[in-house]
Amino acid sequence: MRRWNGWGEESVFQKVNPIAFEYLQAHVGLAKTSHSLTFDELIALVPSSRLTQHELLACCDMTCDAKDRALHAVGQSLPDWIGLRMGLIERFPDAVAYPKSAQEIRTLLDLASEHDIRLIPYGGGTSVVGHLTVPDSLQPVVTVDMRRMNQLLHFDPMEQLATFEAGISGPEIEDCLQARGYTLGHYPQSFEYSTLGGWVATRSAGQYSLGYGRMDSLFVGGRLETPAGSFVLKPIPASAAGPDLRQTVLGSEGRLGIITECTVKVSRLPKQERVHAAFFKDAETALTAVRELAQADLHMTMIRLSLAAETETTLALASHQKVLSFVKLGLSLWGVKDQKCLLLYGVAGSTDAVSQGLLSARRIIKQQGGIFVGQKFGEEWKKARFQSPYLRNTLWEAGYAIDTLETSVIWSKVKTTIAAIEDALKNAARLQQEQVHVFTHVSHVYAVGSSIYTTYVFRLADTADATLARWQTLKSAASQAIVEQGGTISHQHGVGLDHRPYLEVEKGELWLQMLRAVAKTVDPKGLMNPGKLME
Amino acid sequence: MRRWNGWGEESVFQKVNPIAFEYLQAHVGLAKTSHSLTFDELIALVPSSRLTQHELLACCDMTCDAKDRALHAVGQSLPDWIGLRMGLIERFPDAVAYPKSAQEIRTLLDLASEHDIRLIPYGGGTSVVGHLTVPDSLQPVVTVDMRRMNQLLHFDPMEQLATFEAGISGPEIEDCLQARGYTLGHYPQSFEYSTLGGWVATRSAGQYSLGYGRMDSLFVGGRLETPAGSFVLKPIPASAAGPDLRQTVLGSEGRLGIITECTVKVSRLPKQERVHAAFFKDAETALTAVRELAQADLHMTMIRLSLAAETETTLALASHQKVLSFVKLGLSLWGVKDQKCLLLYGVAGSTDAVSQGLLSARRIIKQQGGIFVGQKFGEEWKKARFQSPYLRNTLWEAGYAIDTLETSVIWSKVKTTIAAIEDALKNAARLQQEQVHVFTHVSHVYAVGSSIYTTYVFRLADTADATLARWQTLKSAASQAIVEQGGTISHQHGVGLDHRPYLEVEKGELWLQMLRAVAKTVDPKGLMNPGKLME
Questions:
Q1: Where are the active-site residues found (chains A, B) (predicted)?
Q2: Which in A267, B33, B180, B206 has the greatest CB count within 10 A?
C-alpha cells in the first residue's frame, strides 16, 4: 500500500547505515527524532465540504469523503511534507472526482463552468512544487484524480506512436509497451507513481532523456479538454503551419484544462543497455569530459556526473564500505583523491552500437584523465534508481529534511551557477545559525549546456512553522541565485506555487501576459488550477 | 545582380535540353512563349506613396522611391510571379525601411504605433506563400528590409551557440561559421537569399535537417521587438518552467513583431560528407526502406526518395542522356523498370561514423531490394542543389508554370496522401480541359512519418487573371486533399496568405483563438503583417 505521509510503498523502508548518520551529524548537526501526525489526526483536520448534496456529485464518481479529500490535499514538496507530517495543511479539496473517460471530463468541465467550481487535475500526486495545493477560494474546489483513465487506446509499430489515456502511470506504460517489444524510455524519479498526463503538464524529463528525449519531444499529439471546448492536437511529424501550440499544452500545469489523451513516440526495446562508471580527479576535467560527450552525439541514454561533495556523500551512504575503501585506495594511487567526481554514463542500442558508443565515450573520458572503473557502480545505480526518494522517509524520522533544486544553463555558466547555488544555501543556513549539507550532480546534458541538480539536507525545527520558515529561507536564496545566473527556475519539476515568484525574472513580463491571454481564451472564468504557474 | 522578376542571379540561365521540352509537351501540352513585363512597365504600376513628407521617413533610412517599393512588393509565390511577369500586382508598400539596429527597429515600432502604420518584415524576399503581400489597408504600409542587419554578435565554440542579427543570409552565416570550423547546417532551397530571421518566422526546414535539425530546434533564443515591447528569449538548454513560447515566435510570420536577433545551435564541421544513391523497383519497397532508415537513427543528414514520376522526370531533364541510357539498361536487367524510384541518402561526421552509417544504410536498402548505384547521382544533386528554382525562369519563358506543394503525415498515411494530392491535381486540371504533370518525393523523414513534396507543371493561360484562376483551382484542390488526409498545410513553407484558408481544419478554432489572443497582447492595434497566418 502506498504510504500516505511520505514516499513510496509502506512495505519498503530504506535503512541508513550508522556511518552515514555520523557523516550527516558531522555536516548538519545532531538532530532530534521528529513526531509525525497519525492518519486519524490528519482526518480530523479535514473540514466539512461545501459540495455535500451538490448536483455535481453525480458526475465522475465524485466523493466528499474526508479520507479521499485528505489523500488528495497535497503532493510531495517539502511544504507538503511539513503539512502532512506536522499538521500544517491549510485547505482540503471539497470533493475528489474519479473520471473514467474524456466524455465524463467534458461533462465535469461544463458543470464546473455552470456552477463556478475550481478544478485541480491530479495524476500520481508526485508534484514537488505545490501543483496540488488547494487555493484559498470562495468557490468550492474539486480535485480530479485521473488514475482510472489508464488504458492504451492505439498502438502502431509502423509509425512508432502509441496513444494512451492520460492517467496511465510509468510502470503501466512500460508493461504495455515492453510486452510489444517497445519502450517509451521515460524514467523520471517519480516513475512508479507519476502519470503520462502529469509528465506532459509539467514538461517532464527522465533519467534516460538524453537517449529518448524529454516529454517536449516525446509528446506528439493529444487532447486537452478546456472549459471553452476540446483542443485536439493531431499527430503530425513536423509542421511550418504557424506557432506550435503543442508546446503550450506542455508545461500548462493544469491551467488550460485537463489533458485526457496523449500520443507519444515509442522506440524499439534496445538489444543491450549498459551503464559504466569513471572517476575524475576534479570538477574541471570531469565537466570538460561531460561537455565533450554531450557534443559528440554518441547514442548515449544518460550522463550523470556527481561533483566532489555528491561523490563523497554517495560513497558514505553506500552499504559496502569495505569494497569502497579498496576503490578509494586504488583511485588515490592514480592521483584521484579528495576532489574526485563520479561519472555514470549509459549507452543503449544494438550490440554493435553499444560497443561502439562505449568505446568512443571511453576515449573522451581518458583524454580528460578519467579512470574507468567498470560496470559495478552503474549496476548499483540501476538497482537503486527509484529508491533514493525513500531516504526522505528515513531521514525525516531521524530529524532531517532533504530537498532538491534543479536548473539548466549553457555550458559557460555551469560552474559558476553550481557555486552560486551551493553558496547561497550555505550562507542562508549560516544566517540562521544552522548548517546545511549540499551536494550537486549534472545530468540531462545537451549540446549547448546541462541541467544542474542540487540536493540539500538540513535539520527540522521544533515546530511546523519554524521548519517551513527554515526551508523558505534556503529555497528562496537558492532560487534567487539560479535566476540571477540566467538559469531556468526549473529544468524538470515545473513551476507550481514554489517557483512562481521567480518566473518573471526568467521569462519577462510579456511572456506572462501572453500566457495569461491564452489561459483567458480557454478558461475565461479562471476555473483551472488557480494560482499555479502564474497568478 | 539579382533577377527582379524571377529566381536567382541574372547571369545564371538554366538551359533545358530539347528532350526535356518534348517530355513536357507530351505530358502537359504545347505551350506558347509568354511575354513578360519590363521593369519600367512594373515601375509605372507603382502609385504615389501615402507617406511622402511623413515624419516617419527620418527613421531607418526609409524611402518612398518607386523602385524600392516595386522590388519589395512581392515574394516568390506563383501569384507573386503572375503579378511581376504579367502586371497583376494590386498594391505596393508606401515605403521601404532599412534598419541597421534593434534600436532603430524599436524606434520604428514606437512611431508605427503612434501613427497607426502597418509593417511587413522582409528578409530575403523568398516567401512562396504570400508573406510579403501588401494588405488592402486604409493606413499606410511600410515594408521593413532586414538585410542591413547581418552581423555575427557572439560566438562561443565551447557552448556551440552563435548569435546573429536576424537579417543575415544563408551564405553569410556559413562563411562566418565555416571560417571558424563550424556550421549551422541549414540549407533550405532558398538558402542563397533567405535570412535567419525569415527561417525562424516560418519554421524553416533545410535539406540537411535530418542531421542538423529544423529551425524549431536550432533556434535557442533571441529577441523579438513587438509593438508592446521587447520579448527576449534567453538561451537555456531545456526548461520545465511553463509553456515554451519560443515555439510561438517560431512560425509567427511577422504577426507578433520583428525578430532582430537569433541565437542558434551550431555544429563542428563534419570531417566527411557523402551522398549515395540507390534505385528501388517500386514505391512500396522504397518507402519501407526509407521508414526503416528514418527509424534506425544512423546519423544521416538527408534522405530523399523520388517516386516513379519524379525519378522519370529527373532522368528526362538530366543533360547526360547517353550515360543514363546505360544506367536504365543496367537497372532493367535487375528488374528495376518503369516504376523505379531514386533514393538519395547522405551521411556526415567522422570518417569512421560515415563508413559505419553508409554500411548500415546499405544493409537496410539491400533488404528491401534496393540497387546501390554509388556516388554519381549524389554528387550531381549536390552540385545542382540550389539550381532547380532557376528552372522556373526557363519554363515560364517557354509558357509553363511550375509550383510545389508540401505537407507531412505519419507513416501510415504517406502513400494515401501522395495519391490524394496527385489525383486532386490531375482531376482539377482535367475539369479545366488541361493537363498537369505531377511528381513527388518524400524527404525530411522522421521516426513517426515523413514530409511529402509534390511538384506540378501546367500551362500558363492567355491572361494574368486566367493563369491565376488556373493555379487557384489546382492549389485549392491539392490543399483540400492535404487537410482531408490529416496532413499539415505546410511542412516548411509557412502559411502566409495562400495556406490560411486551410488552417482551421488542421488546427481547430481554439488554436486560432489562442493565437489571436497572443497577437492581441503584443500588438493590440494589429500593425504587424496584417492578414498573414490568420485574419
A1: 453 (proton donor/acceptor)
A2: B206
pLDDT in tens, A74-107: 999 999 999 999 999 999 999 999 999 999 999 9
Integer Cα distance of B498 and B253 in angstroms:
13
In order, the DSSP letters of A81-138 are HHHHHHT------SEEE---SHHHHHHHHHHHHHHT-EEEEESSS--SSSTTPPP--S
H/E element holding A405? strand A400-410
Nearest to B287 by CA among B194, B182, B399, B414: B414
Please name the residue that has the C-alpha cell 463556478: A116
CATH code of domain B272-384: 3.30.70.3450
Q: Is the pLDDT of residue B307 over 80?
A: yes
CA distance B451 to B204: 13
Buried/exposed A446-465: b ≥16 CB within 10 Å, e otherwise = bbbbbbbbbbbbbbbbeebe
User: Using a CB-CB distance cutoff of 8 angstroms, which residues of chain A are in contact with residue B506?
Assistant: 234, 241
Closest to B292 in 3D by CA, of B190, B366, B218: B366
C-alpha Rg value of chain B to the nearest Å = 23
- DSSP structure string for A16-29: --HHHHHHHHHHH-
Domain topology for A37-145: 3.30.43
Whether the CA torsion A240, A230, B449, B354 is positive or negative: it is positive
Q: Which of A235, A493, A517 sits opposite B518 (nearest CB)?
A: A517
Q: Which is it for strands B219-226 and B258-265: parallel, antiparallel or unpaired?
A: antiparallel
B152-268 CATH choice from 3.90.1640.30, 3.40.50.1980, 3.30.465.10, 3.40.50.10860: 3.30.465.10
- CATH number assigned to the domain covering A390-491: 3.30.300.330
Q: Do domains A37-145 and A272-384 have the same CATH topology?
A: no
Instruction: Say if strands A118-122 and B219-226 run parallel, antiparallel, or are unpaired.
Output: unpaired
* Chain A residue at shortest CA distance from B162: A448
Cα distance between residue B407 and residue A424, in whole Å: 51
Angle between helices A414-431 and A283-296 (to 10 degrees): 130
CB atoms closer than 10 angstroms to residue A183: 19
Q: What is the CATH number of domain B28-145?
A: 3.30.43.10
In contact, A467 and A86? CB cutoff 8 Å: yes
Q: Cβ–Cβ of B243/A239 closer than 8 Å? A: no
Flag if B251 and A245 touch (Cβ within 8 Å): no
Instruction: Calculate Rg over the CA atoms of chain A.
Output: 23
pLDDT at A224 > cutoff 90: yes
B250 and B339 Cβ atoms separated by less than 8 Å: no
The neighbour count for residue A12, using CB atoms within 10 Å, is: 11
CATH, range B390-500: 3.30.300.330
DSSP-derived letter for residue A237 is S
The CA–CA distances, whole Å, from A91 to A36, A88, A320, B134 equal 19, 9, 45, 57
pLDDT higher than 90, residue B316 = no
List CB contacts (< 8 A) between A241 and chain B.
251, 488-490, 494-495, 499, 503, 506-507
∠ CA A35-A38-A44, nearest 5°, is 125
From CA B188, how far away is CA B446, in angstroms rounded?
17
Domain boundaries, chain B: 28-145, 152-268, 272-384, 390-500
Interface test with A, best of B247, B510, B533 (most A CBs within 10 A): B510
Please tell me the distance from the alpha carbon of residue A58 to that of residue A60, in angstroms, as a whole number. 7
Whole-model pTM over 0.95: yes
pLDDT at A319 over 80: no
Q: If pLDDT is split at 50, 70 and 90, which confidence band does A14 have?
A: confident
